[in-house]
Structures are given as structure tokens and as C-alpha cells.
């Protein structure tokens, strides 16, 4: 069974091609390492794979199901080991909370409530900031 399938994945940020035409397939029982230089597109590929960002083009599926933020039954089957630091400095507060919410099976809409309770409303739409 194919666990991870990425087909012709592309993610562009304006003129920057963070990922351009990546494809891979990982079957049950296989171990796959995503290695590359800084800026090679590893983090962007993982973000697309986790449904954190949408690809510019191409497709991504896990366990034969298309990846989307709303696929709650899919996210219940996915584990993701967060490396140190526990919060990613390149992500916004909202993006960091979404990663944790998905890992803990918390409803995506709850992230906004959490941000409000933390007093981080200015970070909802972007920016790198700390909460009070």
C-alpha cells in the first residue's frame, strides 16, 4: 500500500519556486529521509504534506486520500515528530498552533479561540511575534 504519494508537487511564492516538480512514493514499511541543502524545499514539502499550505500545483495523498486541512479522519492516522525547537521560528503563531492542534486532534477552528485567549490577536494573519 502507498502511504505517501507526491506527484509533480510545486509550490511557488511569487517568482520563487520553493518546490518544483517533486514526486515520490513511500509504501508501507519503507523508511524515507528527506535530505537537502537549506532552501531546497524540504520544509515546504512537509508543510504541503501536512496540509498546512496548499500546493501551487501537483497532488499529495496519504493512505490514498487527498491531503486537506479538513480531512480529520486522515489526521487521526498521522504522526509527526516535531524537532527542536518546539515552536518553529519561521512559522507564525497561528501556523505553530495549527501544527500542534492537528497532532492533538483539536478542531482547526479552536486555534482562533486559543490565540484570543493568549492575547495574540495581532499575529493571527501573519508576522513573527511573541505572546504576552
From TrEMBL:
SUPFAM superfamilies in UniProt: P-loop containing nucleoside triphosphate hydrolases
Record keywords: Transport
ABC transporter domain sequence ranges: 20-106
GO terms assigned for molecular function: ATP binding; ATP hydrolysis activity
Highest taxon of the lineage: Bacteria
Tagged with keyword Nucleotide-binding: no
InterPro entries xrefs: ABC_transporter-like_ATP-bd, P-loop_NTPase
PANTHER family, A to Z: ABC TRANSPORTER, ATP-BINDING PROTEIN
Similarity-based family: Belongs to the ABC transporter superfamily.
Protein name per UniProt: ABC transporter domain-containing protein
Native organism: Rhizocola hellebori
Amino acid at each position: 500500500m502507498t502511504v505517501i504519494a507526491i506527484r509533480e508537487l510545486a509550490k511557488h511564492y511569487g517568482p520563487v519556486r520553493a518546490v518544483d516538480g517533486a514526486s515520490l512514493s513511500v509504501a508501507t514499511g519503507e523508511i524515507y529521509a528527506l535530505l537537502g541543502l537549506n532552501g531546497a524545499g524540504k520544509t515546504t514539502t512537509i508543510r504541503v504534506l501536512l496540509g498546512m499550505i496548499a500546493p501551487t500545483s501537483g497532488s499529495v495523498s496519504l493512505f490514498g486520500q487527498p491531503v486537506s486541512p479538513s480531512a480529520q479522519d486522515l489526521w487521526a492516522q498521522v504522526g509527526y515528530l516535531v524537532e527542536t525547537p518546539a515552536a518553529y521560528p519561521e512559522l507564525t503563531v497561528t501556523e505553530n498552533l495549527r501544527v500542534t492542534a492537528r497532532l492533538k486532534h483539536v478542531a482547526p477552528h479552536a486555534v482562533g479561540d486559543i490565540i484570543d485567549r493568549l492575547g495574540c490577536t495581532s499575529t493571527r494573519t501573519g508576522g513573527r511575534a511573541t505572546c504576552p
